[in-house]
Amino acid sequence: MATYKGIKGFTVQSLATDPVTITGASGAWASGGSLNTARAAIGSANDGTQAASLAFGGNELPGISNKTEAYDGTNWTVLPTLNTARGATGSFGVQTSAVAVGGFTDANQVLPSTAVESWNGSAWSEITELSTQRINSAGIGASNTSGFVSGGNIRPGSPPGVPSTASALTESWNGSSWTSGGALVTALEDNKAFGVVTSALIAGPSTSQSYNGSSWSTVPATLNTTRTQFGAGGASATSGIIFGGSPAGAVTEIWNGSSWTEVSDLASARRNLNGSGSATSALAFGGQGTPPVFSATEEFNVVTGGTAKNEGQVYYNTTTNLLKLTATVFGTGTWASGSALGTGNNSMGNAGTQTAGLSFGGGIPGEGNSRTITEKYDGTSWTSGNALNTGRYGMAGFGLQTAALSVDGNNSPGNSYTTFVENYNGTSWSEITENSTGRGATYGVGTTTAGLLYSGTVSGGRTANVESWNGSAWSEVSEINTTRNDATGGGNQTSALLVGGQPGPAVLVESWDGSSWTEIAEVSTQRIGAGGSGTTNTDVLVFGGEPTTANTELYDGTSWTELNNLGTARNALGGLGNSTKSALAVGGGSATTATEEWTVPSSISNVTVASS
Question: How far is it, in rounded angstroms, from Cα 334 to Cα 552?
């Protein structure tokens, strides 16, 4: 039986207000109940909640504290004290089951301890000591029977407390003994962690480190504000909050598993504080600053009122009488400097994305040489990879950082045009099936199992030849309309653009639909040896080129639009990204090391469709 919805379409929700984003970015800090004793360098059962937290030890300035207090969401209550007064402990657990690890016991805050105490909800007891004494380590764990501490200041020298040395050590607790765990990638002190024992994150000072239960790895995303001595909370390695610290003061940031976002500041700027809770419901207490020590407690909560904003929803706003759609809205893209290549380069092959890029081969203009070098980009820096088997420049490159092809190119000495094809598996290059027509100054798009190679220079001139790759063999397909080399473009095996190239005029553009090439709207700026990135023949970005330019243009399937320029004008550069929203411009010119990142900002917004 037919339904009304089936005949007329879909249901449109009526709302009195527009949907809102329900995230930590909607949160704010509010005053909570003050500690009974103001303290800095205070310990915390950091797996506790906003309504059930535990604070212990610290520095009362003057005097090292052994005091313990519990928070019930409104007030702090004094509980039995630690056996050993100390501050800057590594700590973990919940309000009824916690561990205080190491810390300093002297007024000068320089003498680290190996002492460990366990809390059972009513009293502290001394348990097995750490193997390595430390101050300000980061702790993770949900009880007094399972957790770990990492990093900290071990001050191993003589006289006592000198020198100050950051540690990379991790020690894990199983309820009866400590064992060594995986070492941090970078030694740290005065940092905090959140998550669980098998999946955790230590934040800052700028980049962070993640733990999988056995080993640590660097997280590329950086904090918006570099800091140490901050407070933190978080239920998992992909959802956490940090606040305050040195020199951040009051700044708060939310972690969503891939990036940090600044949200509402603490009311009181401070460092050497602690906290607990989650990214949507956190607690900050204690600390140091003005006044010298804090008793102030602040509670962070996410705004929960209203309808959650979901991409694709259609609704009618009954207050404004507008039909609206919640959709991703893109802003204006810009170029920003990225980390320099390890080796200045020109006319190389490229593959991958802005945060997982690959550059290989290349050469230096006028020297007639060809290179075998490979470099990999992680969104932050370039590192060397295993070399190509055959050095060349002017090749086509396409695919991903972990699965790429290098096709043809010029091989010196002799400047011969090769038919060499090499496959990269993320670690090394291997030679595979060669194509039919050897060429240089060529271009290609696609993947290691579905690629397209077009245009280029061959012995005796230029070629219109196009070859398609299916993962095991090459086959010739329809030729381009205008023979050329040093062109650029973007797309995939069945939907691509060919842009510019020589001979002039270098503004010609051809579109590939999987079976034939068609001449379409020309670019505004002549381009020879430009960079390109794109997904299909209706979504391509081109930048740079000769005559030397910094100009950037975007094709939307109908026309070209000029956008923000590169920071450095250049030709013979590498372009990669497989996207018009996120791309890289690499090398070029007289073998520069310059890398630039193209990013288009986006947001999920409520867009008016029609008014009544």
Answer: 10
**How far apart are the C-alpha atoms of 101 and 82, rounded to whole Å?**
11
With beta carbons less than 8 A apart as the criterion, state whether 457 and 507 touch.
no
| CATH architecture, domain 341-593 | 6 Propeller (2.120)
Instruction: Using CB atoms within 10 Å of the CB of residue 108, give its burial: 0 to 12 exposed, 13 to 18 middle, 19+ buried.
Output: exposed
Q: What is the CATH number of domain 24-301?
A: 2.120.10.80
The pTM is what?
Answer: 0.58
Rounded-to-integer distance, Cα 255 and Cα 257, Å? 6
Three-class SS state of 318 = coil
In three-state secondary structure terms, 253 is strand
Structure tokens at 139: 């702790």
CB 587, CB 566: distance < 8 Å:
no
In one-letter notation, the amino acid at residue 125 is: S
**Rounded to the nearest 5 degrees, what angle is found at the Cα of 407, between the Cα atoms of 406 and 410?**
105
Instruction: List, in order, residues 6 or more apart from 599 with CB less than 8 Å away.
Output: 333, 334, 336, 354, 581, 582
| Cβ-contact 526, 508 below 8 angstroms | no
Q: Token digits for 277?
A: 């809770």
| Whether the Cβ atoms of residue 349 and residue 406 lie closer than 8 Å to each other | yes
Work out the number of other CB atoms within 10 angstroms of the CB of residue 125.
11
Amino acid residing at 84? T
CA–CA gap between residue 175 and residue 144 (Å, rounded): 7
- Residue pLDDT, tens place only, 280-320: 899 999 999 988 999 999 999 986 666 666 777 888 889 99
Percentage of the residues of the chain whose pLDDT score is greater than 70 = 93
Buried b vs exposed e over 170-206: b needs ≥16 C-beta within 10 Å? bbbbeeeebeebbebbebbbbbbbbbbbeebbbbbbe
User: Which among 169, 37, 179 is positioned nearest to 90, based on CA atoms?
Assistant: 169
The per-residue pLDDT for range 24-80, each reduced to its tens digit, is 556 889 999 999 999 999 999 989 999 999 999 999 988 999 999 999 999 999 999
User: What are the residue ranges of CATH 2.120.10.80 in the chain?
Assistant: 24-301, 341-593
> For 401-421, how does the pLDDT look when each residue is reduced to its tens digit (9 = 90+)?
999 999 999 887 667 899 999
CB atoms within 10 A of CB 538: 14
